[in-house]
């Protein structure tokens, strides 16, 4: 195993701080510094960069980000048992690691970064999906972040990058595809983690599109929720409450199609038409 810094191996860190992994916090640690370095490199270049890391745990990925040259890392960890181990890393990289103790879902990440940032994380998938959605649906666009490099269960990773016609295509794929370019970089087998999870994981990178097609996020969410809420039904049925057949014909979309066949651009067209029709109706009324 390559020595990336002068700190002790992660197994020793776990033992020294009595860091028995806790299932309730989704703790599957990466102890191979070659692998954490490989993940950190996906977010390169890191010099001149503020990196927000969520869920640093004992700090394997944190150490890799600092060793790769990140100017500043802000690490947000919910488990207070990890704080002494993280403090040792902060001491080894003076002035470059800020440790925030708390629940990342309750913290305003953009405000903490107070400028441009990249986000890198190996998180429990439910927390990761919520943080991803929060960052992709931010009101301000282009956003404050330059990239998101995130580990997910492989199935969730496939949902993020899915396009029309893919089995995994749904709301997550439409929202991520609308505002970002998302790609799966590589898989990580269960044995790479301590303890090993049941399924394979994948590292996903998302880059914001500078100018996604204009649409109201709220309306796009309603259209995708309706369309995929009854994904086996024809759109004229699943979108009935939003205008059904007339709406689809106005958009030039065959009403007999199903949600999973619609491209992101077609969802955007539908959302804009729904808004236009609402505005027209409210003027008439
Ligand atoms: N990044 C470390 C690694 O790769 O070895 C730890 C990964 S472990 C899968 C997930 C980490 O996220 C744990 O340290 C856990 O305590 C932390 N965590 C879980 N939920 C969190 C939350 N809501 N906010 C911040 N950290 C959280």
Automatic annotation (TrEMBL):
UniProt cross-references to SUPFAM superfamilies, sorted A to Z: S-adenosyl-L-methionine-dependent methyltransferases
Keywords of this entry: Cytoplasm, Methyltransferase, RNA-binding, rRNA processing, S-adenosyl-L-methionine, Transferase
PROSITE patterns according to UniProt: RRNA_A_DIMETH (PS01131), SAM_RNA_A_N6_MT (PS51689)
Coiled-coil regions, chain positions: none
The UniProt record lists the keyword Nuclease: no
One MF term in the entry's GO annotations: RNA binding
Transmembrane segments: none
Stored Pfam families: RrnaAD
Catalytic activity: adenosine(1518)/adenosine(1519) in 16S rRNA + 4 S-adenosyl-L-methionine = N(6)-dimethyladenosine(1518)/N(6)-dimethyladenosine(1519) in 16S rRNA + 4 S-adenosyl-L-homocysteine + 4 H(+)
Residues where S-adenosyl-L-methionine binds: 28, 30, 55, 77, 103, 122
NCBIfam families: ksgA (TIGR00755)
UniProt similarity note: Belongs to the class I-like SAM-binding methyltransferase superfamily. rRNA adenine N(6)-methyltransferase family. RsmA subfamily.
Full protein name: Ribosomal RNA small subunit methyltransferase A
The species this protein was found in: Aureimonas frigidaquae
